[in-house]
């Protein structure tokens, strides 16, 4: 879950300091409270992947964000 993004920004800074060349973030639930979208966009993170388990309002979308659908996985498991 990503709420404010501050933990991710701190982790990305540490990873970069330790030599990471690209930092990608993967999370299930994009809560994005407060200025999270802006914070993540300005961070060292190259890409933020989240699922569509929580709708992200248009005003919280940002260029580094990619939303992945879990609909097919859920539908497949409901059928079984």
Descriptive notes:
With about 80 residues, the protein is an alpha/beta fold. Helix content is about 35%, strand content about 15%. The chain is built from 3 helices and 3 strands. It has helices at about 5-15, 35-40, 70-80, and strands spanning about 25, 45-50, 65-70. A 3-stranded parallel sheet has the order 1-2-3, with no helix packed on it. Helix 2 links the parallel strand 1 (about 25) and strand 2 (about 45-50). The radius of gyration is 14 Å and the shape is globular. The mean pLDDT is about 95.
Short descriptors:
34% helix; 80 residues; three-stranded parallel β-sheet; single chain; alpha/beta
Q: pLDDT below 50 for ≥5 consecutive residues: which ranges?
A: none
Query: Which whole number gives the mean pLDDT?
Result: 96
Strand content: 15-25%
In whole angstroms, how far apart are the ends? 28 Å
**Helical stretch tally:** 3
**Residue share in helix:** 25-40%
- Number of E-state strands: 3
For the report, how would you describe the main beta sheet?
A: 3 strands, parallel
Query: What does the radius of gyration come to?
Result: 14 Å
Can you describe this structure in just a few lines?
It contains 3 helices and 3 strands; from the N terminus they run H-E-H-E-E-H. It is α/β, with parallel strands linked by helices and 80 residues long.
SSE topology sketch:
Blueprint lengths: L5 H12 L6 E4 L8 H6 L5 E5 L13 E4 L2 H9 L1
Parallel strand pairs: 1-2, 2-3
